[in-house]
Amino acid sequence: MIGRFTHETRGKGLHEVTRLVQQVVDRSGIDEGLCTVMIQHTSASLTIQENADPSARRDLQDWLERHVPEGDPAFTHTAEGPDDMPSHIRAALTSTTLSIPVVHGRLALGTWQGVYLWEHRRRGSGRRCVVHVGP
Amino acid sequence: MIGRFTHETRGKGLHEVTRLVQQVVDRSGIDEGLCTVMIQHTSASLTIQENADPSARRDLQDWLERHVPEGDPAFTHTAEGPDDMPSHIRAALTSTTLSIPVVHGRLALGTWQGVYLWEHRRRGSGRRCVVHVGP
Amino acid sequence: MIGRFTHETRGKGLHEVTRLVQQVVDRSGIDEGLCTVMIQHTSASLTIQENADPSARRDLQDWLERHVPEGDPAFTHTAEGPDDMPSHIRAALTSTTLSIPVVHGRLALGTWQGVYLWEHRRRGSGRRCVVHVGP
Q: Does B46 map to a domain?
């Protein structure tokens, strides 16, 4: 079963989409299986991260800003602005697809885990994800 | 089919869990299919790496220690200690889920590949993984 | 359904394999499902990246060369040469497996996405991938 969702990000950072993914699992009616999410962009990505203290997500964002900075003079792919090339690198270092087991109709995430869409462009946009749920 | 295992790590580094994953594949009775492993934590992760020379794994650990160091003064998420925030970053840079084809009842790993649980906390703990095996 | 392909790389960089993966999907006859690709090596990896402007891929390669450089004096795993250990780290930071939903018999990639085999060794070699396609 294939589902889709679009999430409007409005700037950089980790946007939780656990509920949107779980809604596709709900619609699938599958009790035990596998749920795979793929983001159809190369300047935003996915990650499973801590859903408790927001400071962890701020520090994650800050680390990427410092270690894959905008304005690196070595970049040549700069047509779309200073946040273009860092976005591709940040996406390559994190994940474009995630597969999560489903148990009793729920994503089998750990207690402190959430599914996050990681926006790497300054302005953000409507980010499209495709979800597959199978037995 | 869903299986689970818990692996007691006792400190940082790459702990091989190939045999634990293969045992779930064995129990599934599936001859050809897909095996997905997810770790239910955000301060430990998964990777497929070389299972031959242990110096490769030591250098991997050392690289993370140097490039995502403890005690970075920019970190604000420090309530659980100096190894807390680096653990989240190290997990985001590696993998939380891995999907491996199954052929003739075996994980279709390359000759030199093993599945590793990468512990990022100093003390380690009982790390829980959920495994899905489907046709 | 399991398929395989071998891609001869002839040096470092991102080699597009979207067509090779799609060919396995075609042979499977599956209209809606999930396609998983795994590379059976630990010194090459996989990524989904921009398939339009080649400068993005050159900058990705250049970033890894600068941030996970050959000749790091801290490396001890050097038996196979200066590009050996950086290859393992670069593989750990990117992906060994990718799962992509299949819709209407096609990989459900975004408009600007392609599947790439990322060669990390100087000389390259015949890189083997295993592909699973399921409903």
A: yes
Query: If you write DSSP's letter for every residue of C56-82 in order, what string do you get?
Result: HHHHHHHHHHHHS-TT-TT----TT-T
B contacts of A50 (beta carbons < 8 Å): 42, 88
Q: Do B101 and C38 touch (CB under 8 A)?
A: yes
What's the whole-model pTM score?
0.98
Give the total number of structural domains in chain B: 1
pLDDT digit of tens for each residue in chain B (135 aa)?
Answer: 999 999 999 999 999 999 999 999 999 999 999 999 999 999 999 999 999 999 999 999 999 999 999 999 999 999 999 999 999 999 999 999 999 999 999 999 999 999 999 999 999 999 999 999 999
Domain contains C124: no
Domain of A13, CATH number, reads 2.60.120.460
- Say yes or no: ipTM exceeds 0.85: yes
Extract the tokens encoding A118: 């990681």
CB of C77 less than 8 A from some CB of A: no
- Domain membership flag for residue C132: no
Per-residue buried b or exposed e for B55-71, using 16+ beta carbons within 10 Å of the residue's own CB: ebbebbbbbbeebbeee
DSSP H helices, A29-99, are 54-67, 84-93
Q: Chain A 78-107, CB below 8 Å of chain C: which residues?
A: 79, 85, 88-89, 91-93, 95-97, 99
Domain that holds residue C40: 8-118
